[in-house]
Amino acid sequence: MNIDLKKRASARALPLNQILDGDCIAVMESLPENSVDLIFADPPYNLQLRGDLHRPDNSKVDAVDDHWDQFAGFEAYDRFTRDWLRAARRILKPNGAIWVIGSYHNIFRLGAELQNQGFWILNDVVWRKSNPMPNFRGKRLTNAHETLIWASKSEGAKYTFNYEALKSLNEGVQMRSDWVLPICTGHERLKDENGDKAHPTQKPESLLHRVLVGTTNPGDVVLDPFFGTGTTGAVAKMLGRDFIGIEREKAYRDAAAKRLSRIRRFDAEGLATTRAKRAEPRVPFGQVVERGMLRPGEELFSIGSRHKAKVRADGSLIGNDVKGSIHQVGAALEGAPSCNGWTYWHFKREGRMIPIDILRQQIRSEMDERPS
Hints:
The chain is α/β, with parallel strands linked by helices.
């Protein structure tokens, strides 16, 4: 897989594919400015639990009551949010992006601070859990979703969005902003030596797979400042992305390291994704003519042969006294505001009608085979 040499050089200064011990703010402040492509952050939710939570059979629910999720109040939580987002923004490349995930307890505060610091919100995504934990007290709606915010570093930034890859993931249909995925259970749920959850808020790999396939490319650097048991790192490694994890809790670091040691990266063919059409090399129709793939004077036909036009030496067409590009002539003959000439026009070979787009794809495939 060819990765830009400049990207390789800048990445050498980073502690790639490592789990760093320490406070996320201090560690991010020690990393080079403008050095990572994507940040995925699953910060403490500040759940503000009051007392134990029990099921109807009086068994205790394993809720999030760890010390790292406890703050003196909203002011303290907002200060923490402001500080880690500022540190994250500094290390994000100009065309980088950030994902943050949270519940109703904190996601609105996160969204406000993202905007305060100049991030540009691209989408909010509702992760609808197909198997949510029930509401045991019966005093509120079952909390069946979490919210993710996807934001670029600034308005106008050229962030990565692999539209066609996400469309392929979704059976050829445009990916929506509501994702129905199960919570982390079964064999995917990491356990400690006592058989208990290794981490109370471990995210499913399916969620990170969708995020990384959609908004990063192989060779990109993905940083997770709240690494936990390493879901971001595990998926990044499988997908051929480099990761940096920051985690201050030793038990989580140990669980993540053990997990990552078992992960294998997909092969080059497995890492390939459907490329957006606008990312493919531009091929002027004139190239098809000058390379002799179609000859001046050769006739092209519309679907169903309702219209025809002749190829000219300069790569333009003429049909019914209309002259112009393959797109302009097609649009004029159809009386339409626009036309994709590559799919509209066909040429004849051995009695068969063949779209001229076949010739464009042939040229593109030759471009891809050139040594870098």
